[in-house]
Amino acid sequence: MDEGTLHTFRSLAQEVRAGFEKMKEASGELRVVHGYLESKDMVEAYRSLCLPVRRAYNESDRISFRKVCAVLQLSAEPDVVDGLSQAVDRYEKVLTDLNSTTTLNDRQLSHREVFDAWLDASIFGDFAGKDKKYRALLDECGKAVEGIAVRITELIANQVLELDDVVADALGEERRS
Questions:
Q1: Angle between the N-to-C axes of helices 78-98 and 65-75, in degrees from 0 to 180, rounded to the nearest 10
Q2: Which end of the chain is least crowded, N or C, by CB within 10 Å?
Q3: Rounded-to-10 torsion of CA 9, 12, 13, 19
């Protein structure tokens, strides 16, 4: 079993938990922006969640969701494989959602296009113009674009936490809450 990869994934899951905590802390003060209710520091809070989500989602990362699943599949006990199967099924449903589309302001948008642009904008900001695509989507289609991105971010983050429980079981470690 590649315990190094599994331990690194557990650290990634801790980053997800910290991102969720930061979001909870930031959710207190609400304001209206362009007719939408928005938490004052919510965009910044999501940035801390987006980095670990991007690593889990990015198939070329050594601790991507699918690579960690492959490690577990090869070396885990049958009871761990059952939990792994459930986690994989739920993750695949999220990825299926990425292949769906939504029409906003007469434009058909791929959820994957929105999510990928959101991750680049959240993580890299305006560095090398990485936020241009996301900003253009917001300008053209409105804040509903953000709703799509936030929902998928949270779904993947929750799947990271579910897989972390499976990893903990495989390593014989305590589950974290």
A1: 160
A2: C
A3: -170
Q: How far is CA 142 from CA 82, 125, 167, in A?
A: 42, 19, 39
Q: What are phi and psi of 175, to 5 degrees?
A: -75, 145
pTM, two decimal places: 0.89
Q: What is the mean pLDDT of each run of 10 residues along the chain (177 residues)?
A: 93 96 73 58 73 96 96 86 94 95 91 92 75 86 87 96 96 92
Contact call for residues 53 and 120 (beta carbons, < 8 A): no
Question: For residue 25, what pLDDT is reported?
Answer: 77
Domain residue ranges of the chain, discontinuous segments joined by +: 3-171
Which pLDDT score is estimated for 170?
A: 94
Centroid of chain to Cα 136: 22
